[in-house]
Amino acid sequence: MTSSPSTELHLANVTKKFAAFTAVDDLTLTVPQGSFFALLGPSGCGKTTTLRMVAGLEEPTSGKVLLGGVDIAHKRPYQRPVNTVFQSYALFPHLNIFDNVAFGLRRRGVKSRDIRTQVGEMLDLVQLAGLGARRPAQLSGGQQQRVALARALINRPQVLLLDEPLGALDLKLRRQMQIELKRIQTEVGITFLHVTHDQEEAMWMADTVAVMNAGRIEQLGAPADMYEFPATAYVANFLGQSNLLSATVTGRAGDDLTLDVGGTRFAAPASRARSAQGNVFLGVRPEKVQLAPAGTALPDGHVGIDSVVTDTCYAGVSTEYLLRTPWGQQLSAFSANAQAGGPLAPNTPVVAFWHPSHSFVLHRAPGNQPTDGYELPDNLPAGTR
Ligand SMILES: Nc1ncnc2c1ncn2[C@@H]1O[C@H](COP(=O)(O)OP(=O)(O)OP(=O)(O)O)[C@@H](O)[C@H]1O
């Protein structure tokens, strides 16, 4: 099963206002045909409103929603070749699973023999073969979400919209369904536009992730590219965790930038700098930070900061160490628990070091300090900072 050619989804300068409040702000974005595309951002950033404008559940205040080059912004939801899977499943409780999935085909007047074949194929695809006679209440949450998926896919939409579809599932089931969703998308080849506030989920599943902030796209790209080289402090903090050290660029020689960080000279590759002058953040992910006893000579080419352990957070596969630099900034380092040696006790002096190629340099607005008032949005979900 593949979608027809030229079903690229394109939003052109789309704005949505609710009275004086702008929920989506002049948003332009292209979702390539057949891709798995995630809209990611904290609660209230406008991702569901964007999805609802594609579904036809909200009308844009201005701008175009083009599907295969046709502006669908003012079409009724049922006139659009899109379907939506909601977090709440939205199944018909009085119909069995077969009839729930067959619903769209019956409305279109498809012959019963074809309905039997297509529903059978669809139940196979979502691994629910044999459960067609059950009612939704007789299925688990994960199974009900598979039914919702089958029901949405059976009409072969050009775009499938997924609004936090796994939000009601526990963590283990959520992981299973993430793998399943990815497999199903690859198999059917239909464009999936997936809304989530879960950064790991977006990175696991999507080919392209768009990080939204206050109705706008802050950065868009392949998950690994964005994680390794975020464009802004907001993205660096929303997509995983980052250490952002306030720094000033003091010079450049070829591909090397020299930075002053708390009075210490640091190097960073200019090719990994979004800003190469003035006030910047020197960024490094906690898993790239290694620890050694204070006074240890650093491996060749590495840069490091003498620090003190202030806290340890054991998390099974790894331990997160919170460290304090001599100038009072907090640093975080992840250490795999497979490594030899026990956990470092609080107050242990260490050197935190990394290779400059693992760092990145971001623009820093005047007065924007990560430890003494760097402003993250209030509404970041638990586990992000
Ligand atoms: N019908 C509405 N009337 C007024 N304001 C609305 C309406 N729908 C959404 N908003 C506001 O628009 C902003 C964006 O909402 P939206 O639901 O798109 O955010 P979201 O990023 O999907 O958040 P969540 O993950 O919590 O669903 C929010 O501030 C919300 O309160």
UniProtKB/TrEMBL annotation:
GO terms for molecular function: ATP binding. It catalyses: ATP + H2O + polyamine-[polyamine-binding protein]Side 1 = ADP + phosphate + polyamineSide 2 + [polyamine-binding protein]Side 1. InterPro entries: AAA+_ATPase (IPR003593), ABC_SmlMolc_Importer (IPR050093), ABC_transporter-like_ATP-bd (IPR003439), ABC_transporter-like_CS (IPR017871), Mo/tungstate-bd_C_term_dom (IPR008995), P-loop_NTPase (IPR027417), PotA-like (IPR005893), PotA_ATP-bd (IPR017879). Pfam families: ABC_tran (PF00005), TOBE_2 (PF08402). Keywords: ATP-binding, Cell membrane, Membrane, Nucleotide-binding, Translocase, Transport. The keyword NADP does not apply. Residues 364-385 are annotated as: Disordered. Belongs to the ABC transporter superfamily. Spermidine/putrescine importer (TC 3.A.1.11.1) family. Part of the ABC transporter complex PotABCD involved in spermidine/putrescine import. Responsible for energy coupling to the transport system. The complex is composed of two ATP-binding proteins (PotA), two transmembrane proteins (PotB and PotC) and a solute-binding protein (PotD). This is Spermidine/putrescine import ATP-binding protein PotA.
